């Protein structure tokens, strides 16, 4: 309430609320007493047997024809302005109430259904114009409070005044007399409303803004900024989730996530995320494979591979060590096979030489024995 107090102090808004009360009173006097007048009209006629059906049709016509005018209210408001739409509604109430007075005095009861066709523009345009005007004059962050105050004026105060004044007039003048007085009041209200539009200046935004520079307005602005920031965060998260590839995710994360140490993060990213294609990966693997010991492998891997991909590092390390072991195994086997073959050759040569020497000895002995 403290935030809307500057608005309540403006004479223009107070007069607007008074016209809202009268608008609700004209609506309430029809809603409260039309059934009583219909029953009085049908009491001495054959229509009394169908009076409940006529009353049900009255409500149906009232509600049904409100809908199209609520859809058209935006066009009327843009063409005429909310204030002049309200003036139009007051003159329509004049014709509606005067029509009920004439039908109640001289016409059949079913003719009230034709008059109630005017409820469509009276309520469909009148209520939406009130809502639109109250929203336009509401300070930032106070639209709900202002709407509540305006609804109190329309539904509570207006209907209460209609019930009180309508009951007094109905008991003394009857239904037609009551609606005649209400119709004349609607015409007077129409003239006063036009006069207020011409004479009273509209609410000044600059004055309102100056008056609202208090703690309440600051809190409203902070709430609006906080809500805007939440929307921005959600939008950033949605961008990150909807990214279709790793590059888009990295770009969105770099834009939305604030690193604690930007220099370290940039250096780490430059050092670790360098392999974008197969050639870079092969260079990294060649460095790792050429390392002679585990410490060199770790140093190379730490310089080139991101620490985030620990599982990939282990896999590369295992593959590198396995490949190195396989190469060592092949080399050892080749050396073993070569040595084994060399030994076999030597043994074969020794056996051959030994056999050859033995044959030579035997042949020499045979020659000596023949000579003796």
Automatic annotation (TrEMBL):
Transmembrane segments: 12-36, 48-72, 84-103, 109-132, 152-173, 179-200
One Pfam family hit: MFS_1_like
Keywords associated with the record: Membrane, Transmembrane, Transmembrane helix
Keyword DNA damage assigned: no
Residue ranges of domain Major facilitator superfamily associated in the record: 3-172
Membrane topology, from the record: Multi-pass membrane protein
Keyword rRNA-binding listed: no
Cited Gene3D superfamilies: MFS general substrate transporter like domains
Domain of life: Eukaryota
Record-level GO cellular component terms: membrane
Coiled coil: none
Classification via SUPFAM superfamilies: MFS general substrate transporter
Location within or outside the cell: Membrane
Entries under PANTHER family matching the protein: MAJOR FACILITATOR SUPERFAMILY DOMAIN-CONTAINING PROTEIN 6-LIKE, RE36877P
Membership in a protein family: Belongs to the major facilitator superfamily. MFSD6 family.
Name used for this protein in its record: Major facilitator superfamily associated domain-containing protein
Species per Swiss-Prot/TrEMBL record: Cherax quadricarinatus
């Amino acid at each position: 309430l403290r935030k809307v107090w500057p608005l309540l102090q403006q004479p223009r808004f107070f007069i607007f609320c008074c016209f809202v009360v009268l608008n609700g009173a004209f609506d309430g006097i029809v809603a409260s007493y039309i059934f009583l007048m219909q029953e009085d009209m049908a009491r001495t006629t054959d229509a009394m047997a169908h009076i409940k059906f006529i009353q049900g049709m009255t409500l149906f016509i009232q509600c049904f024809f409100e809908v199209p005018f609520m859809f058209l209210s935006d066009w009327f408001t843009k063409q005429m302005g909310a204030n002049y739409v309200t003036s139009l509604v007051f003159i329509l109430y004049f014709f509606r109430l005067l029509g009920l007075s004439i039908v109640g005095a001289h016409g059949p009861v079913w003719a009230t259904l034709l008059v109630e066709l005017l409820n469509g523009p009276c309520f469909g345009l009148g209520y939406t114009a009130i809502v639109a005007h109250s929203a336009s004059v509401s300070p930032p962050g106070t639209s709900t409070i202002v709407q509540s105050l305006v609804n109190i004026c329309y539904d509570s105060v207006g209907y209460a005044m209609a019930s009180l004044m309508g009951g007094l007039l109905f008991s003394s003048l009857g239904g037609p007399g009551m609606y005649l007085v209400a119709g004349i009041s609607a015409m007077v209200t129409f003239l006063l409303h036009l006069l207020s539009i011409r004479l009273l200046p509209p609410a000044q935004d600059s004055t309102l803004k100056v008056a609202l520079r208090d703690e309440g307005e600051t809190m409203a602005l902070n709430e609006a900024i906080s809500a805007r920031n939440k929307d921005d965060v959600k939008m950033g998260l949605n961008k990150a989730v909807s990214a279709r590839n790793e590059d888009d995710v990295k770009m969105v994360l770099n834009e939305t996530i604030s690193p604690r140490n930007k220099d370290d993060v940039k250096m780490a990213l430059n050092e670790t995320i360098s392999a974008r294609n197969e050639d870079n990966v092969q260079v990294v693997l060649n460095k790792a494979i050429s390392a002679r010991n585990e410490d060199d492998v770790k140093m190379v891997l730490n310089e080139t591979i991101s620490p985030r991909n620990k599982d990939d590092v282990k896999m590369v390390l295992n593959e590198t060590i396995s490949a190195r072991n396989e190469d060592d195994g092949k080399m050892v086997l080749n050396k073993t096979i070569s040595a084994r073959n060399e030994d076999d050759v030597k043994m074969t040569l020794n056996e051959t030489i030994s056999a050859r020497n033995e044959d030579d000895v035997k042949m020499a002995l045979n020659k000596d024995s023949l000579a003796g």
